[in-house]
Amino acid sequence: MQSNIHLEFVQPPLPFDLSPNESHNFAAYLASVNAAPILTRDEEHHLGWNIINESCQCSREKLASAHQRLVVAIASNYTSRGVSFPDLLEAGTIGLHRAVNTYDPATGVAFSTHASWWIKQLLLKVISASCKDVPA
Hints:
The chain has helices spanning 20-35, 41-54, 57-66, 68-75, 85-102, 111-130. The protein is 63% helix and 0% strand.
């Protein structure tokens, strides 16, 4: 018995407001993020060793671009904390690049686990810097 089920992707609403121009730019950004291939753990480790042993800039860029969607996913959890989403993405990307520069595949830790910590650290730093003290 064959089923004629048609599944359609529906874009969920964004957890923040963007102007039409920003919305177009953000959609293009998300398309470029989603176009990056997902790496296997072996590929991550190979790139990590290239970065450590050969200071390979190409490996740095490939590792970072393949995990940019991780920045988007984590930053979307911090949108209601008083910092604009583009600022969160920028801070998260800085955290991602710190993770690329400090990743050691010899530890056996997946790169995404290592990167998540750095991304969250930079996001929390930006959020705490944006908070203003309320006089007592």
